[in-house]
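User: quick one, sequence for these tokens?
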């Protein structure tokens, strides 16, 4: 086994935070096998704090992937890792036959993505003490208010500025893994999102999680709450 790659919060799989014990268990298992523990922080990187999520979970990943926020809205993919691993792909002073190939292509180090990412991270660095508490508390507000409106009909998952509504089905009463999420009523979730898109002026990627940004305000969350009361 070369390694295990896992998200600290499942994004597309249902917006489900992993416990640090679970991830530590995987990390221990992987390291015992001499394999790499790789964290996919494409969604979670710079979403809850200025940096990755893994230090808050006391994890020690060998490789971390980043994307989305670090590109400031432009397409980007970033691979970071421990020095001894990244050195294997270092293009300076190593012959092609001696080094690992990470990638490269037309859009690698794309100047527009680099500029946009740099501007976003610079802004976040300066305003992190205001932005993160604000978006995290809007997420908490959304999760708790949606929970009150839907009651047992819906199981709410997420953390910080991420939230997702799962319409209960097939006896599912809690969601701690993607299998439970997939048993929920995804057709009804799509109807709920399409209703908000077509009637309420609220865009959701149909069937997926909600992600609050600094452009959102409490009024936007109240709009979602109102739209949910009528569903
Ligand atoms: C957690 C996670 N990993 C990986 C990817 C794929 O990223 P990319 O589109 O840059 O290949 C996504 C895309 O949405 C993602 O959410």
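Assistant:
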């Amino acid at each position: 086994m070369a390694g295990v790659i896992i998200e600290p919060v499942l994004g597309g799989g249902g917006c489900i935070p992993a416990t640090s014990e679970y991830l530590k268990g995987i990390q221990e298992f992987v390291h015992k096998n001499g394999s790499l523990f790789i964290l996919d922080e494409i969604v979670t990187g710079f979403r809850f704090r200025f940096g990755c999520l893994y230090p808050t979970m006391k994890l020690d990943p060998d490789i971390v992937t980043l994307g989305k926020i670090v590109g400031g809205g432009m397409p980007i993919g970033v691979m970071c890792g421990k020095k001894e691993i990244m050195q294997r792909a270092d293009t300076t002073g190593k012959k092609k036959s001696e080094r690992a190939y990470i990638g490269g292509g037309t859009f690698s180090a794309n100047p527009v993505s680099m500029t946009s990412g740099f501007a976003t991270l610079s802004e976040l660095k300066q305003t992190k003490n205001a932005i993160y508490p604000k978006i995290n508390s809007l997420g908490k507000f959304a999760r708790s208010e949606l929970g009150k409106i839907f009651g047992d009909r819906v199981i709410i998952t997420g953390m910080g500025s991420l939230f997702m509504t799962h319409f209960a089905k097939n006896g599912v009463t809690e969601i701690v893994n993607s299998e439970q999420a997939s048993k929920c009523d995804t057709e009804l979730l799509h109807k709920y999102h399409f209703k908000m898109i077509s009637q309420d002026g609220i865009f959701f990627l149909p069937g997926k999680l909600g992600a609050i940004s600094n452009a959102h305000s409490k009024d936007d969350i109240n709009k979602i709450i109102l739209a949910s009361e009528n569903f």
